[in-house]
């Protein structure tokens, strides 16, 4: 077997184990936006969605803390 035909291993382990799969339906325009943003940022669409969820979660927590402080 030549070097070009060697089967590659699974790669580097991820920081967090991703053991939950989420399927969702989106329209064509939303898919296009997601795909373009992922390409620009050089990440997978899954990674981009995870980042977006983290950001929304962070903003909601900040709002909640602000409301509790008032």
From TrEMBL:
Gene3D superfamilies: Met repressor-like. It holds the Pfam family HicB. It comes from the Bacteria. GO terms for biological process: regulation of DNA-templated transcription. This is Ribbon-helix-helix protein, CopG family. The lineage of its organism: Bacteria, Bacillati, Bacillota, Clostridia, Lachnospirales.
């Amino acid at each position: 077997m030549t070097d070009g035909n060697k089967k590659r291993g699974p790669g580097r382990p991820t920081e967090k184990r991703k053991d939950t799969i989420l399927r969702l339906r989106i329209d064509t325009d939303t898919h296009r936006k997601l795909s373009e943003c992922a390409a620009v940022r050089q990440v997978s669409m899954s990674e981009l969605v995870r980042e977006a969820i983290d950001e929304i979660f962070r903003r909601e927590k900040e709002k909640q803390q602000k409301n509790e402080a008032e």
